[in-house]
């Protein structure tokens, strides 16, 4: 446990630079640059053309801090125009639905939903109902919702299982194809990472023409443990202790620092088949490791990767399907892009999240000033 003088802790906690969600920067806004590749226009998963993200956030006093985040690969009928996909299990302590069919067929036929653990089945049922009600789906007799989760039971009454059709419909009907809201929003409303408030984060990388000119975008739902490392700097050694900050904030139990989980969704416009996408999803775990994750016993760590490239899409019916894919020798730059974007997405999820006082305790926002001082001391931050 790390201690700072009480006055310093109090000053850090109420500092205007991170007192509200609006004031909290993304990593690059704070001079934290991960890797060497450039980002896309929005530095978000939506930089992959056609990908949309929607949130529904459910907050009720201290009782509920939960929600749904939807990731849609393209705006058309995904069941009729499926995208190649793969799912990688880093550690399987989780309730990810739809995984076996994606593994068997190598394709997504439904949007990806993220939510809290005990709301997975409600969300899946609502998604199935939504899809079956769409025009042209009248004769469909099977649908494979893919719903991932992390446990938000520290900040939300998870046993209430409050997520249902209204939240799923809201997330699917309010999609952004540009900037993506981050932090304590949607499926990230009640998550905790490294003892700090976690949440939704996103980032992207744009490859140069010599490496294919493709884009890779990543979105995460961060809710895991370990020792926070930022741009290679072990900042956990310099930061105040989250337990001490929670006690100062509300004189209540410290933030939950259990095993936790993370969902990582990787999108690309590179023409990849399921085998190549599985390799890509595996590299997302590299980005996770760089942030200091322990990938501990009770941590569900999953990567879902899909390609939006038109030549790789699979339409329902025809016996012959496209098989175009980047050659194995051309994958390295895509691997780098995935690792970098995953690492930065996790940092954005922490930096953008605000302090939340929840069902069983408080999760304080990652304190900005001591974080930046530690990075400056290590020469790991660009001037702004």
List the total number of helices: 8
CATH architecture type? 4-Layer Sandwich
How many β-strand stretches? 15
Q: How big is the Rg? A: 20 Å
Instruction: Describe the sheet with the most strands.
Output: 7 strands, mixed
CATH class: Alpha Beta
* Succession of helices and strands: HEEEHEEHEHEEEEHEHEEHEEH
Number of domains: 1
Question: By helix and strand content, what is the structural category?
Answer: alpha+beta
CATH topology type: L-amino peptidase D-ALA esterase/amidase
End-to-end Cα distance, whole Å, is: 32 Å
Strand content: 15-25%
Overall geometry:
globular
Instruction: List the uncertain runs.
Output: 1-21
Nearest-integer average pLDDT = 91
Helix content: 10-25%
What do we call the CATH homologous superfamily? L-amino peptidase D-ALA esterase/amidase
What does this structure look like?
25% of the residues lie in helices and 23% in strands. It is an alpha+beta fold and 384 residues long. The protein has one domain: 4-Layer Sandwich (L-amino peptidase D-ALA esterase/amidase), CATH 3.60.70. Strands 3, 4, 9, 10, 11, 12 and 13 form a seven-stranded mixed sheet that branches. Helix 1 (6-14) packs across helix 5 and helix 6 (274-290) crosses helix 7 (332-352). It starts with 5 loop residues before the first helix and ends in a 7-residue tail after the last helix. The model is unreliable at 1-21 (pLDDT under 50).
């Amino acid at each position: 446990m790390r201690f700072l003088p009480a006055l310093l802790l109090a000053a850090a906690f109420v500092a205007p630079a991170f007192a509200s969600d609006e004031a909290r920067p993304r990593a690059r806004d704070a001079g934290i640059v991960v890797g060497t590749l450039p980002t896309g226009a929005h530095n978000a998963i939506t930089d992959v053309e056609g990908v949309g993200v929607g949130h529904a956030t459910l907050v009720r006093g201290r009782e509920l801090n939960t929600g749904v985040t939807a990731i849609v690969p393209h705006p058309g009928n995904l069941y009729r125009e499926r995208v190649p996909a793969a799912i990688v299990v880093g550690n399987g302590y989780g309730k990810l639905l739809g995984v076996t069919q994606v593994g068997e067929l190598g394709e997504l036929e439904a949007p990806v939903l993220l939510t809290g653990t005990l709301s997975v089945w409600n969300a899946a049922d609502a998604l199935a109902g939504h899809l079956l009600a769409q025009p042209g789906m009248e004769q469909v007799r099977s649908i494979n919702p893919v719903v991932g989760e992390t446990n938000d039971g520290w900040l939300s009454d998870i046993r209430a299982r409050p997520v249902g059709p209204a939240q799923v419909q809201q997330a699917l009907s309010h999609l952004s194809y540009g900037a993506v809201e981050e932090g304590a929003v949607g499926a990230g409303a009640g998550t905790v990472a490294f003892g700090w408030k976690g949440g939704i984060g996103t980032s992207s990388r744009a490859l140069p023409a010599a490496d294919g000119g493709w884009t890779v975008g990543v979105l995460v739902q961060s809710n895991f443990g370990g020792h926070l490392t930022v741009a290679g700097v072990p900042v956990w050694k310099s930061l105040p202790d989250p337990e001490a900050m929670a006690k100062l904030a509300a004189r209540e139990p410290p933030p939950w620092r259990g095993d936790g989980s993370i969902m990582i969704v990787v999108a690309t416009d590179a023409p990849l088949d399921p085998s190549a996408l599985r390799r890509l999803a595996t590299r997302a775990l590299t980005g996770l490791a760089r942030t200091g994750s322990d990938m501990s016993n009770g941590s569900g760590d999953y990567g879902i990767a899909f390609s939006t490239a038109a030549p790789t899409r699979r339409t329902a019916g025809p016996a012959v399907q496209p098989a175009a894919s980047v050659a194995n020798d051309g994958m390295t730059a895509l691997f780098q892009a995935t690792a970098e974007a995953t690492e930065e997405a996790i940092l954005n999820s922490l930096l953008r999240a605000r302090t939340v006082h929840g069902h069983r305790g408080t999760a304080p926002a990652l304190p900005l000033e001591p974080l930046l001082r530690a990075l400056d001391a290590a020469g790991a931050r660009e001037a702004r």
